[in-house]
Write a structure and sequence with these properties.
Radius of gyration: 27 Å
Structural class: mainly alpha
CATH architecture of the largest domain: Orthogonal Bundle
Number of domains: 2
Order of helices and strands: HHHHHHHHHHHHHH
Shape: globular
Amino acid sequence: MRGLGRVVVLTIVNFIIVFISIAVIYSVIFSIYTYDRLKVLAEEEIRAYRQSLLQQRGLSPQAIKKLLETYKEQVYEKYGLNLPVPFRIFYYTKCLITFNLTGIPIGTNALYPVPGNNALEVTLNGMARSAILFTTATIIAIVIDLLFGIKLAQRAGGLLDKIVATIAMFQNSLPLWWTALIMIMLFAYVIPIFPSKAEGVEVEIRRLKELNLPFHEYIVRYLAAWIKYMSLPLITIFMVSLLIGVYGMRTLVLIISREDFVTVARAKGLPERMILYKHILRAASPPIVTSSLFSIIGSLGGALISERIFHWPGAGFVFYLALAQEDAGVLIVNTWVITLLYLIAIFALDFIYMLLDPRVRVGKGVEE
């Protein structure tokens, strides 16, 4: 137990060090790169406030000047522009560490296909829409990989195994973006079954909200709208990746099934079902969990090129637009949120491994 306690403490310490280090790096980049842009944004806010004051009757020039000075101090403080560079870095590091990101604005005149008044709202709304498509596809793929990969491993070398291997090899050579272009051309223009631009789902949902429909009818039409726009991207994703995961699972199960402890279990006369679920899958669980967890987290970040092609209003498309519009606020928040999720996943996996596989111990705990 002492060894396990030391592992927990070291893992937490490592997590904190990496967490703070990455926050400082992001803050340095953001503080230096965005100062001029934030200043322009602040000046526009001050200019708009000045126009509103000039339209008010009864305000003397001295009163307007005083109100403007007070407002300017507030705006500069909000964006951290009143601080020297080292203090700005500390300010933004604190914001990242405490997850106080609502003060990071959207770039001047930046437009996104998702709602949001600041960089955090835009990022989270984009991730939510990526989750609807890519996380759904990832979870379905994980379930199919597990079910069919195990069955395929039990029939290794058969006709079905050879067919799956051939298709998986073919799928592995298909770029998602290229397949997406072909699918859009075929099923949005040649045979117009699906819409060509998935960002239309946002317009359709806004219209649904304006109709004031009964709750059950709204839910049905809401789900129908998402299914209509996500069907073509979902089919395309499965076309280029599904059997690759199945064959990967089959290979993993086959490799572990040839280990010595599995041979010993068979020599003892244990049923194949018990050997599969109690020995093989338990030993395979760490890589399966790692792959599944990272795939799910990666899906939240969307796919930059594929979302751009489908015009899917997700995190990848938002990131692409942020790059095109040089919106550092959305870029830094988007990257920070995904980085934080990966850090938490890596931190959690250390403990998940110990629960799944008793052989996994770190450092001195093994020796003792």
